Each structure stands twice: as C-alpha cells, then as structure tokens.
Amino acid sequence: MHSTLANLRAKARDWLLPASFLAPALLVLIVINVIPLFYTITTSFQNYYLPKSFERGFNGLDNYAELVLDQRFWAAAGRTFIFVTASLIIELVLGFVIALMLFRQRWAVGALRGLILLPIIITPIAVAFVWRLLFSPSLGLLNYLLAFVGLGPFEWIYSPNQALISLIIVEVWQHTPELMLIIYTGLLTLPEELSDAARIDGANPWQVFKNIKLPLLKPILMVGIVFRVIALLKTFDVFYIVGRGGPGTSTETLALYVYASGFSFLRMGYASALAMVLFLIVLASTILIVRWGDVKIG
Whole-model pTM? Predict the structure, then answer.
C-alpha cells in the first residue's frame, strides 16, 4: 500500500514539474486564441449591431442564412480563391526554378543571400507602400520601365480589371523566397546516390527530378504549401493598404469583407459569422492538403 502511494506521489511530482513549465504558455494560448474564438462563435449567433449593442440578442442561424444569399460574400470568396490559387501556383513554380538554379550554382547563395531574403524581412506595410508607389500610372517605375519595351501604360491597382493581378504580383514578389528556401533546403538533404544511380541508368535531368527528387521533396514541400495557403487565405495588410478592396470591391477578399462588415458597417454579429466561415475554410483547406499530401505533423 505504502509503495503504491509512493509511486503515485513520484508520478505526480514527475507530472507537476513539466506542467508548471507549460502552464504559463497554455494560459497565454487560452487568453489569446481560445477565448476570442469562443467569443466570435457566440457573437456569430447574435444580431449584434454596434451602435445598438444594448439590444443585441440571440438570432439563431440568421447571420449564416443571410450569408448564403449574400452576393458580395460569394464574390469575395471567388476573388479569394483566384488570389490563393494563382499566388500559390506562381510561387511554387518560381520557387522551384530559383531553388534548382541555386542548387546547381551554390556559390550564388552566399553572394545573393541578402537579395534573396530582402522581400521576407521587409514588413508587409512597407512592402504595400513601396508597391503602391511603383503602381502609380503616371509616376510609377513599372510603367516607366515597360515603356522601353513598348508596353503600357497600365493602370494597375487603379483599374478594376488589373487590381487583383497587381496584388498577386506583390504577394508573389514578397513570399516566393519562402517557398524557394524550403525547396532549396529540401534539395540539400536529398541523397545524391539515388540521382547518380538514375543518371548511370540513362535517366535525363527531367526524369531524375520527376521520379526521384520530387517524391523525396513531397513531405517538406507539402508543409510549406500548408503554411502558404493559410497565410494567403488570411492576407489582409497588403490588400487594405494598397487598395482597400478597390476600386469598388474589385479586390475585396473574405478577410477584407470580414473587416468591412465589422468596422465599416458595424455589424459585429454578421462579421463574426463571416469570420467563422473563413476559419472553417482555412481549417478545411489545411486538412485536405495534409491528407492529400500524406503530411506527418508532429
């Protein structure tokens, strides 16, 4: 009996020590993430209009029913899909091309390290302001350079038809280095023996890449894709600073529509419902990519 109690006390001591170290971090996590999420969920079921917050009350699924019939929501969802898909594909292609070039010419990594990391280390706000100047139809550097090859002038962010493309360009410029570094790091970890054996057997460079390197890169590549998809779905700062969803609503994504519903229209209940839908889209996208890519987390 005494030995059993002693064992239980020893196990409790072994458990309490790591728990005491984890408790502050868990408390911060609960305060920062869990409580706001719970508050957003409850608010999404209320008719919460900020100027009349004292009249807020439970309205069931009314906000979600309105959302289904909201054409502005579906338009924002479509633009979000285009933005995420186009940005991710271009970043992947450019990331692969640059990573393979650097892998073959490794001396260039040290020489170009600062240039490679520059888009990543600049804050999104600074990036947005710089690109806003570059996109100026009359004074912007882009139209000035394109004029030398007989192109333009383009209206860029000031045209409803070109604004979303312009913001995709900004996103690709800033975040392609992230995927490129992931791919380059993955290439460095691959065993060269397999590639050498394939070359001896007569495989050309494309066959070596497609049949050997790409399958081996898949786990780390899928992790990078997961993080990029999550970040792209939540992108707000560049959209808000460069165009604020305009001209009109031509660049309004789901993240911007959540903001507009809450802080422009002051409809906190409806904004919370939109935020929950965006959260579910992010969660579903992550689960699908992880399962499709057979990614091992943890």
Answer: 0.86
